[in-house]
Write a structure and sequence with these properties.
single chain, alpha+beta, FAD/NAD(P)-binding domain, 7-stranded antiparallel sheet, 3-stranded antiparallel sheet, 8 helices
């Protein structure tokens, strides 16, 4: 179909007249350009976010790339890690800020991974001192738990370990904690480990066809744009959708 693919070409600059310059000195002049350079996660795949500095030089406003859909660090005691590291906590509800999600968490040596914590990332980043509240038994009230022997709660091994690291005065207090266990978080995991990144080119730099208003004929798509979607297919769908939008607009241009 007349497509020419040039692998191992590292983009370096955009010159006047929409001319692309690559690291080996090659230059290509184009009628229209679509940049699909990704966000800042997993730099070994090429998504190192290095394009941000160059776009700032072009006068394009960008929000800093930050970890999204990633694990969060917290301080586990040695006893909790000995009992729970590498184990999932399933069938729970987790609240962060104003958002609550159902799912599971995975206890790691540095903190937590899992779909529930990934989904709360955008809320947790807003909090000066981030924390989550875990409901270990969503199908029971605190009163119902307090009326039962603890062995009948049927908590998972990591849930027992986490709750057991705190002293409680009575079963009612323990039941209340099991319904809303507050866990302080330290920080998100590094950008290089994140499934995706938030931040990127601000929406007000683009027109309705994802063309940079300051660079006519230059379009962008995917995680280069400042949006933050949950994992589970939404990231891919947003990349595909913006890619199609930018591609069709570039062809029309």
């Amino acid at each position: 179909m007349g497509v020419e693919i040039r692998p191992k070409h590292l983009w370096q600059d955009l010159l006047p007249g929409n001319t692309l310059r690559f690291a080996d000195g090659t230059e290509v002049r184009a009628k229209a350009i679509v940049f699909a350079l990704g966000g800042g996660s997993w730099p070994k795949t090429g998504s190192d976010g290095g394009w941000v500095g160059k776009f700032l030089e072009f006068g394009i406003s960008c929000e800093p790339l930050v970890s999204s859909n990633c694990g969060w660090e917290c301080d586990w005691g040695a006893e909790v890690l000995a009992a729970a590291e590498g184990l999932p906590i399933k069938n729970i509800h987790v609240r962060g800020g104003v958002k609550s999600v159902a799912g599971e968490l995975l206890v790691t040596r540095y903190g937590l991974e899992g779909g529930a914590i990934y989904a709360l990332g955008s809320e947790l980043r807003k909090m000066p001192e981030p924390f989550i509240e875990i409901d270990f038994k969503p199908s029971f009230s605190a009163a119902q738990l307090a009326a039962r022997p603890i062995r009948e709660w049927k908590l998972s091994k990591p849930a027992y370990a986490i709750l057991g690291a705190t002293q409680f005065q009575d079963i009612a207090q323990l039941a209340a904690a099991a319904k809303a266990f507050r866990l302080a978080l330290l920080r998100p995991r590094p950008l290089a480990e994140a499934i995706s990144s938030a931040g990127g080119i601000r929406w007000d730099e683009l027109d309705e066809n994802l063309m940079l208003q300051k660079l006519p004929g230059v379009f962008v798509c995917g995680e280069m744009i400042d949006w933050d979607a949950p994992t589970g297919g939404y990231l891919l769908q947003a990349a595909f959708s913006t890619g199609k939008r930018a591609g069709m607009a570039a062809a029309s241009w």
